[in-house]
Specification:
This protein has helices spanning about 20-35, 60-75, and strands at about 5-10, 40-45, 50-60. A hairpin with a 5-residue loop joins strand 2 (about 40-45) and strand 3. The protein has a 3-stranded antiparallel β-sheet with strand order 1-3-2, covered by helices on one side. The protein has one domain (about 5-75): Alpha-Beta Plaits, CATH 3.30.70.100. By secondary structure, it is an alpha+beta fold. The chain is about 40% helix and about 30% strand. The chain is globular.
Length: about 80
């Protein structure tokens, strides 16, 4: 057994915001890879119709989740 924490998120994309979301997601992935070594998976997909985002995140343990939550709140929450 391990302490991994994961979730799958599905969110609607507001009309006209797809390009901004793609740029933000690229920034978030780069930041997570750079600043969060205990983030084990951080993957996103846009539905073929461009109307929904699917995000899969997995972390080594609850402490790694808290680091991610802090980074997300500080850097990305307002734009997301």
């Amino acid at each position: 057994m391990n302490d991994h924490v994961f979730w799958i998120l599905e969110a609607d994309i507001k009309a006209g915001q797809l390009d901004k979301l793609k740029a933000l997601m690229r920034e978030m992935v780069e930041g997570t890879q750079r600043d969060e070594p205990r983030a084990l998976n951080y993957e996103w997909f846009i539905a073929d119709d461009g109307k929904s985002l699917h995000l899969y995140e997995r972390y080594a343990d609850p402490d790694a989740v808290m680091v991610h939550r802090g980074n997300f709140a500080q850097k990305y929450r307002e734009r997301f």
